[in-house]
Amino acid sequence: MHLGEDLIILGILLLVAYVLGRLGRLVGLPAIPVYMVVGLLASPHTGWFPLDFESHYIELIAIFGLILLLFNLGLEFDQDEFFGNFGKLIISGGSYIVINMGVGLAFGFMVGWGTREALIIAGMTATSSSAIVTKLLIDLRRLPNTETPMILGVTVVEDIFIAIYLAIVSVVLSGETDFWPVVGKLAIAFTFLVVMFTIARWGGRFVSRLFRTKDDELFTILFFGFAVLFAGIGEILGVTDAIGAFLIGLVLGATKYRNKIEHIAIPLRDVFAAFFFLNFGLELDPAQFPSVLGPVLIAVAMTIVLNILAGQFVAWINGMGAQAGINTTVILQNRGEFALILATLSISAGLDERIQPFAGLYVLIMAVIGPVLAANSEKIGGMILRTGAPTRRRKKPKRDPMLDEEIALVEAATADLAPESGRDDRKADDTTAAVDRIVEQAMLEQSASGPAAKQEDSGDRKRD
């Protein structure tokens, strides 16, 4: 089996992705649209890339990328944050999802591609990209901002929603129409969710015993094996491989080895996820873009408007101002991996073929617009919230030249109080501090009496 040519092609694609990624970083673009564009360039549908490359070469690697994306999502899920602020998070995140999901579902039915397609479109437009949101908060140095905990709280609720939503969607996409089989599949899916959440919440100490090894190689094989194993279990139980991976990540995130797993898993995720997005781009056919351009542009406009409303509403609930709402809006409107995961599921379920180009074009546009707006949210807020002329800075009052001269004389007189003069250091410091207080007090008195002195002086001149 000779793979030399295929390896050369794959290596060239990754190098092209690197170059475009570096260029994208200059304007603040995340990696997701870059990888999709590279896949689109090499797609057999375009002929833009001089190499003949079929997507099935990397499909298995792309599946690993999907598994690790959701595995890391579960691994990074902060259970203490979620349960410690349960009420506020549910209200904030829940209201955000309800606003976007409700209108998105109506839009899905309006497009007219079918009921199941409407459910997929609603999911695509309802939730943010956790990867892009987190990356933007770090790159833009927004982590200390007052609205950042609120934004991260919304993404936490979205992660829970994704798990439940995918469990429901997997049953809907199975094509089962009889009532009791559908109920049975939903019961199995939710039982799996409840069991795994329970283990994650209270069984972390027992799971930790499985990872007692100092060998990093065996440690990596162990957690990666768990991710793949539970992805397969999830697929067999009907809740998709993505949710199986998310749930085992949730369980391992509750162990004392979470940081060590994250340290190894994040680079693995980045490499394999690149193949997932690359593979998605390979399957896109630009010739189908015109047929979905109208719905995509409507979806983009709808997403921006809904996020403005939802962002301001969530900020208002948490007692924050309009600028915090604007920052929340532009960060949370980014769409990415979850929309592509739903599109991948719809392809395997045999839904309308237009779902795939719709998802690809929608994510490409949102993943470009989102970071650009996020980087300029402070400027946008300043332009929108400014109600009048900008306030002028107060000029510092000019000091009296005589006072400057007096200060210089005092400093010259006390120059010999420096420690190197041989005198007692503590006495010198005390004397210098006392002189500083006298000078400061004189400056304050001169500043306070300045206007009055001017009035008195002008009166004396008039009397003269």
TrEMBL record:
Transmembrane segments: 6-24, 31-51, 57-77, 89-113, 119-138, 150-173, 179-200, 221-252, 264-284, 296-317, 355-376
UniProt keyword terms in alphabetical order: Membrane, Transmembrane, Transmembrane helix, Transport
Residue runs in coiled coils: none
Location in the cell: Membrane
Annotated region described as Disordered, given as residue ranges: 413-464
InterPro entries registered for this protein in UniProt: Cation/H_exchanger_TM (IPR006153), Na+/solute_symporter_sf (IPR038770)
Basic and acidic residues bias: start-end ranges: 421-430, 454-464
Residue ranges occupied by any Cation/H+ exchanger transmembrane domain in the UniProt entry: 14-373
Topology with respect to the bilayer: Multi-pass membrane protein
Stated family: Belongs to the monovalent cation:proton antiporter 2 (CPA2) transporter (TC 2.A.37) family.
Listed name of the protein: Cation:proton antiporter
Organism: Leifsonia williamsii
